[in-house]
Amino acid sequence: MDSSGFSLLRQPRVFFGPGKLHDLPDLIHEFGSNVLLVTGAGTLRRSGSLSRFADRMKAEFLHYQHYTVEGEPSADLVDRAVTEYGGAGIQIVVAVGGGSALDAGKAISAMLLKKEPVERYIEGQPEFKAHDGLKVPFIAVPTTSGTGSETTNNAVISKVGKDGYKRSLRHHAFIPEIALIDPELMLSMPAGLTAASGMDAFTQLLEALVSPYASHYTDAIALSGIEHFSRSFIPVCKTGTKELEARSGMAYAAFMSGIALANAGLGIVHGFASSVGGYVDIPHGVLCATLLYPATRENISLLRENGDCAKPFLAKYAAAGRLMCADSSLDDYEASTALLEKLDALQKELKFPRLGDFGIVENDIDVIVSRTRSKSNPVELNGQSMRSILQERL
Questions:
Q1: What mean pLDDT is predicted for residues 340-352?
Q2: Which end of the chain has the lower number of beta carbons within 10 A, N or C?
Q3: What count of other Cβ atoms lies within 10 Å of the Cβ of residue 381?
Q4: Can you state the angle between helices 268-279 and 284-304, rounded to 10 degrees?
Q5: What distances in angstroms separate CA 301 from CA 306, 339, 384, one per listed residue?
Q6: Is 16:142 a contact under the CB 8 Å cutoff?
């Protein structure tokens, strides 16, 4: 190990495994009995988990109010929740759902004690004001295997349109007090959501692995997540399987991706997630899925032109390629090439939607490129490189 130093964010208390949802009421009692439950619009109801959970809450003498999130959280959604529940004496916010529900719950917990609109505290907004970290305690219960929001210190807030944005409300105190990860909650995930959320997790693992801000710790986390992803992703996508082992593997990969990204940062795909995601209404996982192959190909191509200084990054791409292809005999060039071939094959096999399916046209590209930043990419991309990534997926 070299002498390079690193720092780490704290992690939530983690409860991982099938059936862990049963423990949630007891965990809630550690913080109080007046609960704001934040969920997505449909998955829990379809699976029957919401009604069972509600019955258990009542049996445990927990008083809860229910706030539903549709789509990715906006500032208006967060402000409405704070207006409605700010005077209700909420002692704990519990979010059960996908990344959007978790980010909404995280933002609401951060804002319930504030008197100002959430936009004042969103990074990059006019008159930005740093949050002091004072919040209502927060428990995150993911029902998808994607964003890793159950372990990160930020909540992504979106405003879609020509003057839109997709930026973070962030403070180290916003890391959930508890992350409860029950793979049984993911058994009813639709095939499309399974593929998109899984590619989000893999994008986060790969981008954190090759980030200039990575460390030995984040490398180990990312590679462990990629190993589980490589074994579990195709089984859950191809068959819509309800096999618990595969769902558990994807839940683990997503959790690892959250730890890795929170401590190492993310690359150009997530740079586009901010600029494109604020420009048109496109699901975050879908954007990651459709851009990861051309973005990774562009990065590797440029790194191969950069000589010795690029070798550490290419070696990490190669390590990911060996795991994805289950072939430890490949040299670095062969393995990084195999990674690209694997990503291309996934894109073709799973038929990820294109940017044009969401209304993006050629004339939009320059505007998007001008709004795209990515300080944690392993190689600097100029405007033409970014244009070529987007143009390939129009």
A1: 96
A2: N
A3: 22
A4: 140
A5: 9, 13, 14
A6: no
Sorted by sequence, the CB contacts under 8 Å of residue 121 that are 6+ apart come out as 110, 111, 114, 128, 129, 130, 131, 169
The residue type found at 157 is I
Question: Is residue 365 helix, strand or coil?
Answer: helix
Binning pLDDT at 50, 70 and 90, where does residue 242 land? low
Question: How far is Cα 131 from Cα 170, in angstroms, rounded to an integer?
Answer: 8
* Closest residue by Cα to residue 43 from 108, 101, 94: 101
Spatial contact of 151 and 258, defined as CB atoms under 8 Å apart: yes
Structure confidence by residue, pLDDT tens digits, 305-337: 998 889 999 999 999 999 999 999 999 999 999
Burial class (CB in 10 A: 0-12, 13-18, 19+), 49: buried
Strands (E), 70-191: 92-97, 138-142, 154-159, 165-170, 178-181
Q: What is the distance between the alpha carbons of residues 311 and 187, in angstroms, rounded to a whole number?
A: 40
The two tokens of residue 303 are: 């790194």
Phi-psi region of 283 (alpha: psi -120 to 50; beta: other; left: phi over 0): beta
What are the extents of the domains in the chain?
A: 13-186, 191-392
Q: Is the dihedral of CA 178, 183, 184, 185 positive or negative?
A: positive
pLDDT range class, residue 3, cuts 50, 70, 90: low
**3-class SS of residue 129:** coil
Relative to beta strand 154-159, strand 165-170 is: antiparallel
Cα–Cα dist 168/157, whole Å: 6
User: What's the whole-model pTM score?
Assistant: 0.95
Q: What is the CATH architecture of 13-186?
A: 3-Layer(aba) Sandwich (3.40)
Rounded distance between C-alpha atoms, residue 332 and residue 301, angstroms: 14
> Are the C-beta atoms of 209 and 223 separated by less than 8 Å?
yes
Rounded Cα distance between 266 and 244, Å, is 29
Q: What is the CATH number of domain 191-392?
A: 1.20.1090.10
**Mind listing the pLDDT tens digit for each residue in 156-174?**
999 988 788 999 999 999 9
